[in-house]
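Run aldehyde oxygenase (deformylating) through structure prediction, thanks.
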Amino acid sequence: MELMLSDELLGMFLPIVVYWIYSGLYAIVGKFDSLDEYRLHPRGEEAKNVVSKATVVKGVLVQQAFQVIVALALFTIVKDDGQAAKKVQPSYLAILSQLMISMFVLDTWQYFLHRYMHISKFLYKHIHSKHHTLVVPYAFGALYSHPLEGLILDTIGGAMSFLASGMNPRTGIFFFSFATIKTVDDHCGLWLPGNLFHIFFGNNSAYHDIHHQLYGGKYNFAQPFFVMWDKILGTHMPYTLEKRKEGGLEARPLKD
Ligand SMILES: [Zn+2]
Ligand SMILES: [Zn+2]
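Sure, done. The structure for aldehyde oxygenase (deformylating) is below.
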């Protein structure tokens, strides 16, 4: 019982701690001049972001407060399911299939809602445009969005993938922390060599950077893991990474 309680608490707070640690590391790394060659935007371009970093931090903290409340409610529901089933630790194969299911459910939920938020002028103007104020994304801006967007896409999407996969809270701790790291990485603004996410996931910092540009609003809706819905439904914009004359890299679309 105590163990379950600690898993539940960890499931709520670890992804938040992970968010600030991982994005904090990127904030530090981003200060190194030696890594400028891996930046997707020159330093000066951050001025294009119309919100201050303090506003972004506050906005993200509001999202995370929502996350905690919904996670609390979620774990309360799961707790009532009976204790016996939860004491059995699933096999690694079962955990792996639960993780695949949860990634598929989260990707599907987020793709269609994210795309709809671009199709509906009302939703874009009043809700999703807030996330797009960061035309030059940076790591701790990953969860900067309207509280309703955070609630529906991230928190409810996360809850649904958790419930659909049948994972236990301990696997949930891992899944939510992993999804958090992946989302932060997609906004890091860097293309660092050796980043394993670039190998395993079509959606990554360059792919999502295209979406954050003005011309990218109709493409690359995938988040946070795989790009299959973009490919199936014709919203996939391939890109090349080219060296900028002034240094650093630029993710350039391969379509007009
Ligand atoms: Zn968008
Ligand atoms: Zn984004």
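The first strand starts at residue 239 and ends at 243.
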